[in-house]
Amino acid sequence: MKVYLGILAAVGLIGLARARCPKVEHNPVDLTEYYSSVTNLDVTGNAFKRALSKVIDGHHSYTYSPCTWDILQEADEHPTRSDSILALYTQKAIKKSFRVGTPGANGDAWDREHVWAKSHGFPGKSQDGYTDCHHLMATDTSCNSARSSHDFKDGGSLVSGCNSKSTRSTWEPPAIAKGPVARAMFYMATRYEGPGDTPDLELIDGPTTSSGPGASEGKFGYLSDLKRWHCESPVTPRECTRNTIVHSWQGNRNPFVDHPEFVEKIWGPCPAGSVHDNNPLPCGGDTDNTNDDGATDGGGDNEDTDIPVDIDDETPPPPPTGTGGATREALIASATAHLELLQRLPASRESCAAFGCRRYTRSAPCQCNSKCRRYRNCCDDYGDFCEAGATARPTTVDAAKKDAHRHTQLVNGYRGLGNGHDEL
Known about the structure:
With 424 residues, the chain is of the alpha/beta class.
């Protein structure tokens, strides 16, 4: 009898943990209209930050459980594995059902990372900052624990299994996460200007502490590092899509994803040649980025300049990324042109790097096959180019258009994999 009651209790607890959150739906917005009150303001610094805060203030808050679990399962869903999330620091696919504390999850569990550590201003679950999903992100449980409440700053020793570096008080995420982390921090410092249940949050260029004498309540470091990460990291289509998903729940957006230049209006200019100089609106003019097939495009016109291709004759240009205001026909034409150039490369020189996988080397031109096939990413989805070579290439215009369009969507989810990230 005791065993039976124990089983019932366990089942009941699991069922409770999987309770669904009632969503208050917010429709897509026109970004020009959404930011119309601040785009032409002739002010900078704190005056601009206060004005921008009014645009994104007053979002719809949810309970920490189960709601933020549900939101992150959608916002941080793996691009090709709908049953998994994409972990922030490791870029691993972790099954959505493997939440921290779930029986059987073992070392594969994921948790909700407070990018702005909750101990720095909002320790209570009822506070808006605690449950704000513009800075809550799905993360490996072990990395969430290792990062603790550390300030963000370059440097430190490699943290095993997290693709990050750390000192006793600072944390440097991998390159692929630096831009999203920085923009989440800028959002928090702007959204929460006080008064309210969450205090005025401020970024400082120095160390902070979360408890004890001299605790830096509402403050976080290091501003100069976060700004540099933002200036060096273009907004990705994935960030645009995530911004739209969180908006659909909360009713507010991260303005520094939609308008990267707003960072400069508040915290000063980026160095000349910043990745944002020629791409001021990476998410386009609206947030209803759904194409004819019902698939969601990232929006914007980012150049994927960091896709690693290392071949010493004709190198294909970066594949097209996102639609911005372009028509679907223009997108397909651009992708098809890219595909045709790839088809002219010698079969022995083919590289999955061209499709967002790992770096090409002469000794192992198809080294990414096992990784790609294991995680069902670009090589597997794009027709086994490496294994089958030219025989796998599209043989008709319609097939080329179909594959080129799919290629565009795939690359959006695989930026930066050549920079030390072996897994998705």
